[in-house]
Amino acid sequence: MPVHVGIAVDTRTAPKLLSLILNRALIREVTITSIGVSVVITGILLVVRLVGLLSKAAEGTVPIDSVLGLLTLKLVSYIDLIIPLMVYVSILMVMTRWHRDNELVVWGACGVGLGTLLRPLILFGLLVTAIVAVFSFYFSPLSIAQAQALEEEAKGRKEITGIAPGVFHPLQGGAGVYYIEKLGKGKNSLQDVFVYMRESRDEGTIVANNAYQGIDDNTSARYLVLENGRRYDGGPGDSDFTIMEYASYAIRIKTEKTTEITPRVKGIPTMDLIGSDDPEKQVELHWRIAKVAVVPVLVIFALAFSHITVRKSRFSSMLIALATYFMYANMLVVGKSLMEKGDTPVWLGLWWVHGLFLLAAVYVFWRHSNNLPLFSFHMRKQTDDACEGLEL
Question: Half-sphere exposure of 81 toward its Cβ, with a 13 Å CA cutoff?
Answer without folding.
Answer: 16
